[in-house]
Amino acid sequence: MIPVYPDFTEIDLLQRATMHSLFQQPDGISEFTFANIYLFRNSHHYRVSRLSDELLLIAGADEGKPFFMLPFGLPDETLLRQLFTDFGTMKCVSAPQAEVLAQRGCRVSEDRDNFDYLYLRQDLAELTGGKFHKKRNLIKAFVSNYSYEGRPLLEEYMPDALSVLDGWRQGRDDPGDYDAAKEGLEKAEELQLCGGVYYVDGRPVAYSLGEELMLGRSFAIHFEKAIGEYKGLWQFVNQAFASILPDKYVTINREQDLGDEGLRHAKLSYKPIDFVKKYRAILF
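and the corresponding C-alpha cells:
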C-alpha cells in the first residue's frame, strides 16, 4: 500500500505489481524502471508516495540534499510548487517535462553527467566500419588468445556471476555499486532482469545484466562487471551480449558516465547515436 502525500513508505518488492506497468514509458530514462528504483533504494534513500491513482512521487536524498522525481507525469501547479518547497530540486526530468517546467517558471538545466548513452544494437553487435577498427582488433586478440564461452545468466550460473562481482569488488578502493549489483543478481528473477555470463578457460570472468526500456524498443545494461587481465575482454563482452539480444531492441542504453572522464571517453568511443537527456529543475 502506497500512502497519499505527504506520507511516504519505503520501496519494497511487493510494490512491483503496482509500479512496473507504470514505468513502461517512451522516454527511456534508465533510472525509471522498478528494478533500478528498488536496487538503488538505499544508495539514494528512495521513498514513494501517491499524488493520485497513477501519479506517484519518488523522493530521495544524495549527500544529505533532498530531491524528488516524477516519472509518471506532473501534478497541478499548486502541488508542484509545494514539492519544490518541500524538496528543492527535481531530478531525472525528461525532455518533455523540461519544456513544461520552464513554461511554469522553473529554472531547468541539463544534467550532462547523467545523460544515458544510446547505441544502435546492430552497431554494437557487428562493429562494422573504420570507426570500430580498434574494437575489432581487441576482440580478435581476445578470441585468438583465450578459450572462452558465454552462457545465458540462468539461475544455475548466478554463483559464477556473483564470484565475478566479488572479484571486481576486491580490486577497488570503494564499493561502487556493489550492493545494488549483488542484489540485482540475487533477485534477478523477481525483478525480471536478464543477462549473460562469460568464461575464460572455464573461469567466470564477466557478466552483463539488464532489462528492456522504451516500451520494449531498447535494452538497458544496468550492470556489467569483469575481472582479470584479459586483453579485449571488455570489448568482447560488449559485442557478445549485443549480438544475442533480439532484433526488437533497436537501441542499447548503456546508462550514464556520472562525470567520470575515463568512463565518458570509453562510452564515447563506441559512437553513441544519441543520448537520453535528463535535466534538473528548481524554482526561480
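(Above: one complete record from the training split.) Residues 116-255 form a domain with the Aminopeptidase fold (CATH 3.40.630.30).
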